[in-house]
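anyone seen this seq b4? input:
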Amino acid sequence: MGKSRARRFRRPALGPAGPGQRQHGEPGPEDEPAAELLDKLQHPSAEVREYACASISKLLQQKHVIPAFLQRDVVRCLGPLLMDHSLAVRETAAGALRNLSACGGFEVCDDMVTNDIMTPLVALLKECSAELDANQLSPKKCREANKNYIEDIANEAINLLWNICECNNTAVYIFNKEGCLEAVLHYMKKFSTNVDLAISVANCLQAVTEDNPDLLSSFNASAQQVLETAMLCPESTMKHVLLRTLIAGTVWNIKDTIPSGSLGSTVNAILKIFSESLAIDAGETIIRMNEAEKNRLKLAAEAETEENMSHVVDNCVLSEDDNMEEIPKGKLRRENDVSDLLPSDKWELKEVTALLTAQQTALEIIVNMCCSEDPSDDEWEELSSSDESDLFMENSYNEGGGLLMTPLCLSDEVHSAFLNNLIPKKILEKTAFPNSVALDICMHNPSWKSLIKKLNAVQCRALTCLHSILLVSDVDCLGGASALQSLAQHLSQLIFSKTELPADTEFLEAITSALRALLQTMASKNISQCMTPEQLLALCEAGIHSSNASVRVNVVSILGISGSVLAKGQDTAETLKMIGKFLLEVAMKESSLVVAGEALDALFDVFADGKEAEKVAEQIKLLPTLKEFQPVFRTRMRKEGKGQYSADQLCVLDNVRMNLRRFIAYQETLGKTPT
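predicted toks r here
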């Protein structure tokens, strides 16, 4: 049903509560500890309050217990503790609220704002910001000299703010109104000594600056200088790569505040950061970091053995001297020995996680850069049909040919920056499957297994990037037919390189979207396609059974594009017959009207012209079948349309309905009536 639209990524939203959750008023076994712990929040002892906050924080990570706490007004109970006299209580209370916001989803975040969590949270953020540069903390408030409570509290509070602003527009309004930007940027200045805090701030800033024009006036020269300083930090750790990537995303969000004379250099700096992030081989990094972890654990085990031997010797010496005081066993550890019992910090795993997050973020922002204004349908059609756009810029896809890419809706400065930073080439590299050795490491290491999902996410985002670029491509600037065919072969290999077709929904949507855009481009210039009819039908058979309607739309469109090309050739009747039957079945049996409409649209394209198409249309009884189906489609639109589909979708479906009438009339003029 026309050209596909570019997908615009937004910040990841928090998921809603899972199935099987009880209603708020329904009692359960967790109600008793909830009531008991909430009562302890009012205890005069700071240690008891801290214990209660920590216990609540742990429980709130289990979604099924959240209703019991909400029923007892947990937000209003924890909120005042953000300004507790005890810094330890502040930190654990902020951590509990952070978990509530992260695990509760949109409705819980809305409830937190309704219950005025922003008032104490804003006060806490401003107070911590004011005390951030204090040389030392009051000994009455700090139990450990080596712990910076202010920065740790700030980190929890910033993450809480990020989660809430992600889900609630009122929270963003309060952020603007209360001038929170100044306090948040003050934390960013700690990037050289506390990169974790800086990353939390960068995540929050990227969220609150997206589609928030009211905040732009607050980004004065001083605020921009803070971002620029952190964005240009030279440290090479993966956490710093992530930090720079997130800040670059924030700078892109506020690009309207940058003077026109500086925009080119700023955009170039942004894309340079993305380029550096994407240039890092995640698979090799996993292999290297896994080896580093093994070596670290080996050295730690050897050191522990030596320490135990030393203790044996010391105990022997002590036993020989009856006058020496015995050391209590409890004093061999620090007084607060909980941290000694925790697993190692797994910095290697954190580094890899930071890298993959940086790469995914960079790819998502590039997608948004390709179509930053999210045009209306009319604007999109005008954009898609433009013949005057210099859309892509020269870059090497592989050693055998050039592939030229640059998004249409970007300025000359961005065009140049794309070229200078080799962005398209690096996007294509990320579309490949992850390193098999790295995958094996992740599969056999439980704590690293979560990286598999992140590796796959990077690949899918890269494919979506490719799709967005292809949608606004100028064929003459793509490097010619050979470059397009090389790209088609690459995408085909991704689909058919394994014994079974991929079943992952996210991958299927990304790869079919990219392939659809590519085939549209190739068909528009009569460039021969590389997929065999068998491959084409195998892909469509697999995709049409996907639970994702976008995948089904894509494969139907791919079939229509390929079929319309075949219809103009010779000796293609058998393949056209398979395509025609497939599309007719989808149109008549598909549960989604959008997919059914796409199948009809594909039929119109395939059988619009050509001797082979005319012959096959008669063989599969296309005209009588469509005439019989026409009232059924109209009835479905009346019954299902208004309640299930958007205004845009209904408009497109209405066009399909009219085109169906016209197509039937056209077929009748050809004399293809049933005998």
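The mean pLDDT is 82. The longest strand covers residues 396-398. kinda curious what u guys think
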